[in-house]
Amino acid sequence: MGPGDLSSVLAPLASVSDPRLLVGRETFDDAGVYLVADDLALVQTVDFFAPIVDDPYDFGQVAAANALSDVYAMGGQPITAMNIVAFPTADLPLAVLTDILRGGQDKAHEAGALIVGGHTVIDTELKYGLAVTGKAHPNFLLTNAGAKPGDRLVLTKPIGNGILATALKRGIIAAAAGAEMIEVMKKLNGPASRAALASGAKCATDITGFGLLGHASHIARASNVTLHIHARSVPVLDGAREALKQGATTDGLKRNASYVEEFVEWRGSARDYHDLLCDPQTSGGLLVAVPSDKLANYLSKMEGAVEIGEVLERENIAIVVD
Ligand code: CO
Ligand code: CO
Q1: Reduced to 3 states, what is the DSSP secondary structure of residue 130?
Q2: Along the chain (322 residues), what's the average pLDDT of each consecutive run of 10 residues?
Q3: How much is the pTM?
Q4: Counting ligands in written order, which one lies closest to the CA of residue 214?
Q5: Which of 145, 175, 253, 275 could cysteine-pair with 222, CB 3.0–4.6 Å?
């Protein structure tokens, strides 16, 4: 569901407040965080979706990496996970589900987490994901509210996988363009998260369904800052621009675009990057607000991480893109 509709759905519900609830839903963070002891917080999140790649084992890995990512985006370490499955038993052999679950299990093990159970329903459309529980130290969290003026914005994976996956599905771009995309989506955000904590960062989010600008807008609002994003610096998957030229847009992209419209000021020719910056991502990278004196160290430790902008004192708009 798009961020605009989701906000409307949640608005009438009473907000939950409890001294032990360190991060609730108000700040659009990646996971809920609940204090269980002075030095231990639980990090809880869930994510599932329909396949965006053909191979079941790949899909299982991508879906798991995506779900685990929300724990990393809070500065947590995943410890346990539960499978969530909707499966069309009349249309697909059961072996397909075994391969999906094997992919999810292998990725969870790579993350150091155990899959301890799950729930399966028969449905017309296949969907898979995980509910993940992680642990974190309450003094070392990465929240949307933690960005400070002067921090530098670092993105750890290229964007464009929504557009590219759509083009591949429609067969309007060569299948070879999908190989890099799948590898990037399978990559865990654990190293990026640990490097962020080591650099003294207090703010990160992962780039998923709301696109780079949608997630960035949540940081700007929760931290009461303005984010300055240099469109030309944002890393983009090979083939995504070509896919866009061939008309590979999605309804999710349109929903994100209309949601962020009022939060973004476009300068110069930055609008050329509009669709890429609004593209919904699956298992995207972390967007981290890194203290400026730790930037060089962070970039040297994280292969593929790129500085894409900086955090400014709050101006009259949430995001400036130039
Ligand atoms: Co997230
Ligand atoms: Co999520």
Answers
A1: strand
A2: 88 92 92 97 97 95 98 98 98 98 98 98 98 98 97 98 94 89 97 98 97 97 97 96 93 95 95 96 98 97 96 97 96
A3: 0.96
A4: 1
A5: 145
| Ligand 2 center–CA 172 separation, angstroms | 29
Q: How many angstroms is it from 210 CA to the middle of ligand 2?
A: 10
Q: 87 is written with which tokens?
A: 């499966």
Amino acid of residue 5? D
Of the candidates 199, 187, 186, 185, the one whose C-alpha atom is nearest the C-alpha of residue 301 is 199
Q: Between β-strands 225-229 and 319-321, what pairing exists: parallel, antiparallel or unpaired?
A: parallel
Would you list the domain boundaries of the chain? 31-136, 144-321
Q: What is the DSSP annotation of 21-44?
A: EEE-TTTT-SSEEEEEETTEEEEE
Indicate the pairing of strand 225-229 with strand 77-87: unpaired
Find the 90 Cα to ligand 1 centroid distance in Å: 33
Q: How far is the CA of 31 from the centre of ligand 1 (A)?
A: 7
Domain 31-136 CATH class label: alpha beta
DSSP tally for the chain: helices H, then strands E: 11, 13
Do 253 and 279 meet the contact criterion of CB atoms below 8 Å apart? Answer: yes
In order, the DSSP letters of 173-227 are S-GGGHHHHHHHHHS-SHHHHHHHHHTT--EEEE--TTHHHHHHHHHHHHHTEEE
Tokens of 305: 């991480």
What CATH fold (topology level) applies to the domain 144-321?
Phosphoribosyl-aminoimidazole Synthetase; Chain A, domain 2 (3.90.650)
